[in-house]
Write the structure tokens for this entry.
Amino acid sequence: MKAKKINSTISNWQMTKRKNRLANLLIQIACCLLPIVSFAQYTQIASLTPFNGEIPKGSLISDGTYLYGMASFGGINEDGTIFKVKPDGTSFTKLHTFSNTNGQWPTGSLVSVDSFLYGMTPDGNNTSGNGIIFKVKPDGTGYVKLHDFIAEGPSGSLIYFGGFLYGMTHENIFKIKPDGTGDTVIFRFPFSCINGCLPNGDLVYDGISLYGMTANGGANNKGIIFKIKPDGTGDSTLFNFSDASGSIPLGSLIFDSIYFYGMTSAGGENGYGTIFKIKRDGTAYSKLFDFDPSGGFGLNGNVPTGSLVSDGTFLYGMTEQGGVYGGGVIFKIKPDGTMFTKLFDFAGNSNGFRPYGSLLTDGNFLYGTTSFGGTYNYGAIFKYALTTGITENNLAAGFSISPNPFSTQTTITFNEEQKNTTIKIMDVLGKQIKSIDFKGRTFILEKEEMKPGIYFLQISDEIKHMVYRKMILQ
């Protein structure tokens, strides 16, 4: 009952097929009235169809060879699909079609653990219809339903560490082993909502605590930022959102060594969402940017629903609405709130419309999906070329990484002896995985608990020269 009342404040993710078709038709009509635009940096690498899947509402992941994602609808049963495609747009493959008993209408993203992809659906199971947890191999075989949600469906996506998958439903935080055993609720959001309710986005883990956001509840009933230890102890509210600070966050946090960065879908100076940062202890909250309704659409974009991604210099993100054509934008901004730049306007048939998830980067391109638009108006998969990367300096040219890609370890070899060099490893969301103060010429990087995927190596010296290199862990 509580979730139903709260859901009135945010978009209903479990819309009926009839409503989807109507919304799609309206977008097609709107797109036909708008001029077609083309940007050299933007490439539509695949258009979704009713057969392969339609209306993706999550984000892509990469294993270094393929991009993997899910579509909320479409497929043989019209209940959604799992797909993969190469970054150049070739080898698009539908891996799995969902059904009303084995998962239905997926809205989150996949996570890779060992040789399987794991994910959740908010609907479809044999008992309550409140969704499932599943796993499937990257080639589409070995699909297994691991868990049926009984009381409330899941929200966001799973994360993995320490032998457990962690995730959230509309009412609790849970953990479960990759084989489907050990399901444990570690925290329940109180019925009063004073400590937040209706969590959205994904949890993030800094090695000590889990952090996340709720779209409602808290002191102002506008959502909160919370932290809790993986065993369920130490839960605390770090920040209460408000109309002024930004409200109703729908994405996830990302963090560097000092700050968390995130977005709200509403609130702020103009009521159309914000970009913010906050220290991990809940202090130093700073609103970096207010999205606006300029010209009736919000030329810089508005209503962001996903998360930010970092390349070490800029934060990149998308809005679901606003821009020149009203179909959302891609933007970048520096972590101090300066140099906000709109990079791209989504226009409809030519390049997609209404992105709902988050971006993925490999250092050269941003990858993402749109819920509508594209060639067939059922959503698009795209990439956007980053042409303003970090300029290489003498330090940057003076080392090599071999092998790359690697599976167990790789060696970083410098041309000259290093005295005060810092080596940092970050994932594609900008999250710091490791930091090492290094002296010498050769450093061996071990896989340890790093999962297969794309990482960035940041090398900096005492003069603060800095360079990034992409690494692929297979």
In short: The longest strand covers residues 409-427. Confidence is low (pLDDT under 50) at residues 1-38, 388-397.
